[in-house]
Design goal:
The complex is a heterotrimer of chains A (239), B (634) and C (314). Chain A has 239 residues and is an alpha/beta fold. Chain A is built from eleven helices and ten strands. The longest helix of chain A has 17 residues. Chain A is globular. The relative contact order of chain A is 0.19. By secondary structure, chain B is of the alpha/beta class. Chain B has two domains: 239 residues, no CATH class; 246 residues, P-loop containing nucleotide triphosphate hydrolases (Rossmann fold). Chain C is mainly α and 314 residues long. Chain C has one domain. In chain C, helix 2 runs parallel beside helix 4 and helix 9 crosses helix 11. The longest helix of chain C has 36 residues. The chains are: A alpha/beta (239), B alpha/beta (634), C mainly alpha (314). At the B-C interface, helix 5, helix 11 and helix 13 of B face helix 3, helix 4, helix 9 and helix 11 of C.
């Protein structure tokens, strides 16, 4: 589904990605974990086209370098950004509708709507309310719903748990699991919370200072002290 | 060398202008051409006056017609109704113009970007309506029979030109002088980054108001001269938008911030527009406006800075021979001076005696730097708990629904290097911004040296001794390394606390310390990241802060660069400057800090010795997610 | 006493009818700012062009010497709207698109100056260009409606309700309602609001922001132009009239909170009230100055307006 080859990206002089390569298979669930500043969000922005990068990215075996961001979205790369970023001036329903653009999305709109409201009953209750009035957790649900409604092939979920209370986080992650099981879509999850991420995904990459320092099956990484080192910067010997 | 050269250039250009005018005077016989010459000079002078404010500060004024029109109307009014000869009223009008600029500045300078521009646009239009309402639609000055100087009316139109030349030369020299003064350097740093300037201790509002006062006074004078030349004033021709636009356009085309910019712009545009007006103005009434509009658009799309580059006098300022020896002697006997520095002497950890960076009178200062160069291994001994110099008490801050900070309390002791870590959204930057005064807390207080900083402005807090570097580096990109560091000292210099020669010494030493001497004359914008961070550090250090706040100084650096940065920071720390550094990556930090605080979701969740804190389960879980310690098997 | 009350009522009616069209003018400006953060100095010139477009349409399509009737007014206004839409699209594509990157990406103030100065240049070109093309003598769209009024008799008082202004008011309200429907119920409106709200997120949804910008600018120009066409029957105009109205528009928009279209509508009505009542209570010459003074006070004390959200986010 997605093949990233040796990409470099920086914000001015700040190097954010320093040669990252990874792959995502069809209908796979891949996690990218790492501490802040590791470059996870930058990675997503490179994939969705929001920033410039050097290197190559191929989507469904075709190169997408140089294709504008909004076109990538229409091709099926759906980026659910960090910090929710819902459209505050639109109602919940309208927010969802902004995602419905492609033929598939329109065709499956009824079905997706049902799924979204089943996953997130709170959204159904408030479906005509302005998104700006929702709580953080509800906004995250809405953002996920938007991602669903777009009926893409690759779903990029950027730190869905950030800034949310623990119970809400649990709901969100449950929903993500359900999406993975119900829909035939590849999911890439960027998370700081390694525990939850590794317990949901099949394969994971560990990012640190713009480089991939470890990758493997979720189970392998669970045992690796590399993960802790990547986050905290100290090896277990230092204890 | 440079200062001599640049003075020479200025003087040469001025002489060239005078020369050209003189030649024109003697060769041109047609009154029409002479009047074009006169207008060119006047509009050039108006442009330079505008530039003194807008070019220097970057706050674009769309309403300088207010000052121009004030000068124009008042000089005519006084002559017509009170029979005051223009030459006598001129100086008073200038002073009045300064006062007007002061008032307007005090009122408007606090407005942000667009609002400021819109407000400046509205002001002359208010004047326009008021003048019409007062019934002064058209004021004309009668021809006086004897062409005496005090009425500023001359039979020979070229005599007007001499007046205009004098005002133009005066305005040029004033602008030039400003760019080389401390005021000019402060204005230039405000232009490039007003927030960084404020945290360096510069009183942004006050300096902008001073610039506006000068600019207004000069604009009023130009307006008065214009009125005595044209001898008739109407609201539109003196307060109208086109008048403000003309000041703008000659500066924009010729070079915003360049002393000679408006002169060049006027030279290009005025004769051109008058010529076009003469040729087709009869049929195409309004062609001048089209020309100016087109010039603005062309400039904005392709050359927003104008033809000439901005004039900077900072090198001149730095390299001038200070008459500081006299100052130094005065300072030595100045009680306040010695008291200040007695308070700030800090124990030097390496040698155990008091010293300060770059303190010219202290032999030890120089020795310490040399020692450091030779011995890269610097061990930082434990600093005993002394007087806390910075205390934070129960700080809370909400942004809408988000609780950014919840009951944050901690103390920083003199000489400590405190590290604050936490993931994104933990509240670290919010905390820092509060320590600087950039944002204010909802509740709780911050005290530095026992003084509450609650009500203080950013620059006032900076002057209390708080220095800062930024997460996204905010160096003054167009200035060189040395110039950047000098800016950090401007507030001290302007207050007279530190003499020029000593500052020079200090800057040199800091450059040596931070290993910047090799690149000190390069523009910061082009340097590698580590050097840029070092420059920011230098800028914060030169003011001799008591507390240094370093905001993610290691972020975005490669492993080697981060190591470099840590090495530099250790050198700085060796001087015993209290440092608070926030980071989200722990690696490099652990070698540097004496104490570590961990934040998560706006709260402090751990505090203590770095290696021990980092091994605590709650800290690990804050980063990796709840349950990691059970989940991971290792 | 009765006389004063009558004058008060008369002013109230006048102000309300005028408010509708002022609201339209403001809404055009607010639409542009809310979607693309462009502070358009030349908006007054869009109004002026709308006026001339209406006059032109009337001159071409109507031979009548007494002027046009309701249909003529409606037709010429519609034509103005369409013309200004095209003009807006062209101006955006040629002049503003190159600099839009600077205004959106830079948080700092420089970006605003570039577009303010650029649109100032545009304003100069348009107003003086019109001066060249159309001359400086005042023009007006002739219609018998502007001189006819219905008379409401309330006891001893007679209130004149000007027919042209009433038509203006009705049309303005209809357009307002149409605009709100488009913005809230159509896909286009949704996409525009999405771009306005969060340009990055809207990109992720597959929205082409540039299309949003072009359409918003065109619509903003068209709405203001249409407002101008409606005024053109009641007020004589000349090429510099834009400058008189641009402060009215900015006052209304700032009052409503710069990004709010509904706020701009209300702001426009408030400005009309201020203007008319100043004329009643002070003098007619001060009417112009009063709006400027209100504008200045707003900027100094309430730059975020009364109805909108905060513009500069932390």
């Amino acid at each position: 589904m997605l093949a990233i080859n040796n990409i470099h990206a920086s914000y001015g002089k700040r190097i954010a990605l320093n040669g990252v390569s990874l792959e995502v298979g069809d209908a796979a669930f891949v996690a990218v974990i790492g501490a802040n500043g590791a470059g996870k969000s930058t990675l997503f922005k490179a994939i969705s086209g929001a920033i410039q990068y050097n290197g190559s990215i191929a989507f469904q075996k075709k190169s997408i370098d140089g294709i504008e961001a909004f076109r990538r979205a229409r091709m099926g790369i759906v980026h659910v950004p960090e910090g929710r970023q819902v459209f505050k001036g639109l109602s919940i329903e309208d927010n969802l509708k902004t995602a419905v653009r492609s033929r598939n999305a329109i065709a499956n709109w009824e079905m997706n709507q049902e799924l979204i409201y089943k996953l997130f009953p709170k959204l159904w209750q408030r479906k005509n309310q302005f998104a700006g009035t929702l709580s953080g957790g509800e906004q995250q649900m809405l953002a996920l719903g938007r991602g669903l409604a777009a009926e893409g092939q690759l779903l990029l979920l950027d730190e869905p748990s950030m800034g949310l209370a623990p119970t809400v986080v649990a709901d969100i992650f449950d929903a993500i699991e359900t999406i993975h099981q119900t829909k035939n879509v590849s999911i890439m999850l960027v998370e700081q919370r390694a525990t939850e991420a590794l317990s949901m995904c099949e394969y994971a990459y560990v990012l640190r200072s713009g480089v991939v320092v470890a990758e493997g099956n979720a189970i392998e990484l669970r045992n690796a002290s590399t993960v802790r080192e990547a986050y905290l910067g100290i090896s277990s010997e230092a204890k | 060398m440079l200062n001599i050269r640049s003075s020479l250039i200025t003087n040469c250009v001025v002489i060239a202008i005078i020369g050209m005018v003189a030649v024109a005077q003697f060769t041109l016989t047609n009154n029409y051409y002479i009047s074009i010459l006169n207008l060119t000079l006047l509009w050039a002078a108006f442009g330079v006056s505008w530039n003194i404010f807008s070019g220097s500060t970057g706050l674009i004024s769309f309403g300088h017609a207010l000052f121009f029109g004030y000068g124009a109307y008042l000089i005519v009014y006084l002559q017509v109704y009170w029979s005051v000869p223009p030459l006598w009223s001129l100086p008073f009008i200038t002073l009045g113009g300064a006062l007007l600029g002061l008032i307007i500045g005090a009122l408007l300078i606090r407005l942000e970007g667009i609002y400021f521009a819109l407000a400046t646009m509205a002001l002359p239009l208010i004047a326009l309506y008021t003048i019409s309402w007062l019934g002064l639609q058209e004021l004309a000055v009668r021809r006086v029979s004897d062409s005496s100087l005090r009425f500023m009316q001359f039979d020979n139109p070229s005599d007007y030109v001499w007046f205009s030349v004098v005002i133009l030369i005066t305005v040029i020299y004033i602008h030039n002088w400003i760019t080389r003064s401390a005021l000019g350097i402060r204005l230039s740093s405000i232009h490039q980054d007003s927030l960084a300037a404020a945290t360096s201790g510069i009183n942004v509002k006050r300096d902008a108001i001073i610039a506006l006062t000068i600019s207004a006074a000069l604009s009023a004078t130009v307006g008065s001269l214009y009125a005595t030349f044209i001898r008739i004033v109407t609201p539109e021709s003196t307060f109208g938008l086109l008048v403000s636009a003309q000041a703008l356009v000659v500066a924009i085309v010729g070079g915003v911030g360049a002393v000679f910019g408006p002169v060049l712009g006027a030279l290009i545009l005025i004769p051109l527009s008058e010529w076009i007006e003469a040729v087709v103005g009869g049929q195409l009434f309004g062609i001048q406006g089209v020309l100016y509009g087109s010039a603005i658009i062309i400039a904005m799309l392709w050359m927003p800075q104008g033809i000439l580059p901005p004039t900077t006098g900072i090198l001149y300022f730095i390299n001038r021979n200070s008459r500081a020896n006299l100052f130094n002697k005065l300072r030595k006997n100045n009680k306040r001076y010695t008291e200040l520095y007695a308070n700030l002497l800090r124990p030097n950890i390496v040698t155990g005696s008091g010293a300060k960076i770059g303190f010219s009178e202290s032999e030890q200062g120089i020795n310490i730097i040399d020692n450091l160069e030779c011995s890269p291994e610097i061990t930082i001994k434990n600093v005993k708990q002394r007087d806390g110099i910075l205390e934070v008490n129960q700080l809370c801050k909400n942004f809408g629904n988000v609780k950014a900070l919840q009951d944050i309390s901690f103390r920083v002791n003199r000489g400590e290097i405190l590290g604050i870590i936490g993931s994104n959204g933990a509240g670290k930057t919010t905390l820092f911004n509060m320590l600087n005064g950039i944002i204010k807390q909802d509740s709780g207080n911050i005290t530095i040296f026992g003084i509450d900083t609650g009500k203080k402005s950013i620059h006032a807090i900076a002057r209390m001794g708080v220095g800062r570097t930024y997460q996204v580096a905010r160096p003054f990109e167009k200035m060189t390394v040395t110039e950047n560091i000098w800016v950090g000292a401007m507030s001290l210099y302007s207050e007279g606390q530190v003499a020029h020669s000593e500052l020079k010494f200090r800057v040199d030493n800091i450059q040596k310390l931070l290993e910047l001497t090799s690149v000190c004359h390069e523009a910061v914008g082009g340097l590698p990241t580590v050097k840029i961070r070092a420059v920011e550090l230098g800028r914060a250090l030169v003011a001799n802060p008591d507390v240094l706040l370093i905001d993610e100084g290691l972020a975005g650096l490669s492993a080697e660069d981060a190591f470099e940065m840590v090495r530099l920071l250790k050198k700085v720390a060796a001087f015993g400057i209290t440092t608070i550094i926030i980071e989200h990556t722990m690696n490099a930090l652990l070698e540097l800090v004496t104490r570590l605080i961990v934040m998560d979701n706006g709260k402090i969740i751990a505090e203590g010795v770095p290696r021990e804190v980092v091994a605590r389960p709650e800290v690990i879980e804050a980063y990796l997610g709840k349950g990691w310690t059970e989940y991971a098997s290792d | 006493m009765v006389y004063q009350f009558e004058a008060f009522l008369q002013t109230l009616i006048n102000a309300t009818l005028l408010g509708g069209v002022y609201a339209l003018l403001c809404v055009g400006l607010a639409l542009i700012f809310s979607v693309m953060y462009i502070v358009n100095f030349a908006q007054g010139e869009f109004m002026m062009l709308g006026m001339y477009a209406a006059a032109f349409a009337v001159a071409v399509f109507s031979g009548s010497s007494t002027g046009v009737g309701v249909l003529g007014i409606l037709g010429s206004s519609a034509l103005s709207g369409v013309t200004l839409f095209i003009v807006g699209v062209l101006i955006y594509s040629i002049l503003l698109r190159p600099i839009i990157a600077t205004t959106k990406s830079s948080v700092r103030v420089d970006g605003h100056y570039v577009q303010l100065t650029l649109t100032l240049g545009l304003s100069l070109i348009l107003s003086n260009g019109a001066l060249i093309l159309f001359g400086s003598h005042p023009t007006i769209v002739k219609t018998p409606l502007s001189n006819s009024s219905w008379i409401m008799n309330l006891g001893p008082m007679s209130i004149f309700v000007n027919q042209m202004r009433s038509l203006t008011f009705i049309v303005a309200c209809i357009i307002g309602i149409v605009l709100v429907s488009v913005m809230t119920k159509s896909r286009l409106g949704r996409d525009l609001i999405a771009t306005a709200d969060n340009a990055e997120a809207s990109t992720y949804m597959g929205i082409n922001n540039n299309v949003s910008y072009v359409i918003a600018f065109g619509m903003g120009a068209a709405i203001t132009g249409l407002g101008g066409a409606l005024i053109a029957a009641n007020n004589p105009f000349q090429p510099y009239i834009g400058l008189e109205y641009v402060v009215i528009m900015y006052t209304g928009v700032v009052m409503g909170g710069m990004k709010s279209i509904k706020g701009a509508w209300i702001g426009g009505m408030v400005v009309a009230y201020v203007q008319e009542f100043t004329g009643l209570l002070l003098s007619v010459e001060l009417q112009g100055a009063s709006i400027f003074v209100v504008f200045l006070l707003l900027l100094l004390f309430k730059p975020n307006g009364f109805f909108g959200q905060i513009v500069e986010r932390a």
